[in-house]
Design brief:
heterodimer, A: 262 residues, mainly alpha, Ferritin, 13 helices, globular, disordered N terminus, B: 154 residues, alpha/beta, GMP Synthetase, Chain A, domain 3, four-stranded mixed β-sheet, three-stranded mixed β-sheet, 3 helices, 21% helix, elongated
């Protein structure tokens, strides 16, 4: 098992997946941190700071796995790769937008992440499985938090529901690439890293969101339709890099001064 | 490990003096963060269980463990174990008492009943926010004594 695990760790596809997960968690974690001092309630200021901390540490975990696959030093993987080299789903780097967009984006990401982590938790790679099981416990709180916000905004009606609906329309085109992988998912299944095929994960994703979206008055059938229309059976297309480039410029602003100690 | 050697006992005693940086009344042992201790001719090895992966205190705690063991003459290697997932059921009865005296409740594992208020003991409590001042704590409110309080995340 240990030897098998080592061989898995050295397969470049595995390293690519680790980079994808690292990029997604880092970008979303950075977006979370942008609400610091600006969130609509002080509790949300604390919540988003706390979630940012979780996501960025999860990113570090995945970058450390990529480092173990021979992709270079984890910090350099996090900060020094250009936007064009990133493996994230476009949704993770999108600017926050308004509060409805922020919480709905986080909600759909958390829903997909929970499904993906549950599959990785059954992985044949010991470190992958251990990391995923830990993260599932931590992400659970993010998911509960966002679920409540989505339902509250939807049920509030008026401007809140209208903004939530607008956020839904804006995020919908990003979902097929979110519920996909930067590498061929069939290869991940063959390597034993992913315990279930993509189509099954996507069904679990929709099933997980259906009750919440319905309570919030959002059409879950639109999610099903767009996922069906874009199956993304191989590696998904690379995300447009403008959002990531802007995010990286802000994130690395202090670091690029050169005198910072990490 | 059923019988601890003299030197292992000394390591556990030193660990009992390493506080949590945010809740200094409790030690890493009270919090159930120590997975294992072993001692051989090269020094001591301590395996800690992180409460949350993103806890920014982990590096600080590892440094304090090394320093506390250095005082006892041990060169210590500190590692974080990923295989065990921390939850509040790892907190010792002693740790639960100390935390309650500080106004931090510890929910029982898979407890369907609301967490008891650490000030008045009432269970007429509600989650105010799942996110508190540290990753491992949430903010609650007691309707009986009208006091906000913190609890370890269930």
């Amino acid at each position: 098992m240990a030897r098998e695990g080592d061989m898995q760790a050295l397969d470049p596809i595995i390293g690519e997946l680790a980079l994808q997960l690292g990029d997604e968690e880092l970008f979303l974690g950075h977006r979370d941190s942008e609400w610091l001092g600006l969130a609509p309630e002080v509790e949300e200021d604390v919540a988003f700071a706390s979630m940012a901390q979780d996501e960025v540490r999860h990113a570090a975990f995945w970058y450390e796995l990529a480092e173990a696959s021979g992709f270079g030093q984890a910090d350099a993987l996090a900060f020094d790769r250009a936007a064009t080299e990133r493996r994230h789903a476009a949704l993770c780097a999108r600017p926050n937008g308004d509060w409805a967009h922020t919480v709905l984006r986080h909600y759909v990401y958390d829903a997909w992440d929970a499904v993906r982590l549950a599959a990785l938790a059954e992985s044949g790679g010991a470190l992958w499985a251990q990391g995923a099981r830990r993260m599932l416990r931590e992400e659970h709180y993010h998911h509960l938090h966002m679920e409540k916000w989505v339902v509250d905004l939807g049920r509030a009606g008026g401007e809140a529901a209208a903004r939530l609906r607008a956020a839904f329309e804006a995020l919908l085109p990003d979902l097929p690439d979110l519920a996909a992988f930067a590498v061929d998912p069939k290869a991940l299944v063959d390597l034993g890293i992913l315990s279930r095929p993509l189509a099954e994960l996507r069904r679990a994703f929709v099933a997980r969101m259906a009750p919440t979206l319905t309570k919030a008055g959002l059409p879950v059938q639109d999610v099903e339709a767009i996922l069906l229309a874009h199956p993304r059976e191989g590696a998904r297309p690379v995300a447009h890099h403008e959002d990531a480039a802007a995010l990286l410029a802000t994130m690395n602003g202090v670091r690029s001064l050169g005198a910072a100690v990490w | 490990m059923t019988i601890r050697s003299m030197s292992e006992e000394a390591v556990w005693e030193a660990l009992a003096r390493v506080p949590d940086p945010e809740l200094p009344v409790v030690s890493v042992i009270d919090l159930g963060m120590v997975k294992s201790v072993s001692v051989d001719h090269r020094g001591a090895r301590v395996e800690l269980i992180p409460t949350f992966l993103g806890c920014p205190a982990l590096g600080w705690i590892a440094d304090k463990v090394r320093a506390a063991l250095a005082e006892q003459g041990f060169e210590a290697e500190v590692a974080f174990a990923l295989g065990v997932i921390w939850d509040p059921s790892r907190i010792t009865p002693d740790g639960i008492d100390k935390l309650r005296q500080m106004g931090v409740a510890v929910p029982a594992k898979s407890d369907a009943a609301p967490v008891a208020c650490p000030y008045c003991g009432a269970r007429d409590t509600d989650v105010e926010s799942l996110f508190g001042p540290t990753p491992c704590r949430a903010v609650y409110y007691c309707r009986a004594c009208r006091q906000p309080f913190e609890a370890m995340k269930p």
